[in-house]
């Protein structure tokens, strides 16, 4: 097995690889910040919220529920439901983190988000083909820290200028995140057989979203995908 490149080079590679993702992420960070600012949140409050709960979708849900009086229990519940996907994402990374000491694994998981998770799995696949150690913590942190700093900074900027704008969703920036996830999906694509759990998860999540109020489509889609992967795992492995 080949030796991994130096940590500094790996960190820089992670920063470089995530730059295209940042282009799609910036509009969403600004939109979230603007919405928070219009709800009365200061730039500091918005940056603290996004810094402590680095999870994208649940932050939008929290800002959408923000009001007076503040529905704290409802916000906590919805945040937990939406962030439940991180349990599955963390489980998928566990085989590659098992040799890391806890003091390194826990910070790595704190900074994990959808984009860094997907990019790391794609990088693991590339490193396997090159005969390198599968998981590169410097690369992962290069991706994760860059996304974290940019997200927190621009949500704060959005909150600072938010009261000056109208309905920013009407500007059409909402397509930015779906476009980013389609690119990430392409990097993980291994054929339709391996994608069946994803497709089932998508179908179930869409059906629940259209028929049930609230954020139940998130755990429903995650559970459907997990069950599909469990029951079809052997068949997918045989065809891979």
UniProtKB/TrEMBL annotation:
The chain crosses the membrane at residues 60-82, 137-162, 168-185, 192-210. It is a multi-pass membrane protein. InterPro entries: Brnchd-chn_aa_trnsp_permease (IPR011606). One of its GO terms (cellular component) is plasma membrane. One of its GO terms (biological process) is L-valine transmembrane transport. It is found in: Cell membrane. Keywords: Cell membrane, Membrane, Transmembrane, Transmembrane helix, Transport. Belongs to the AzlC family. This is Branched-chain amino acid ABC transporter permease.
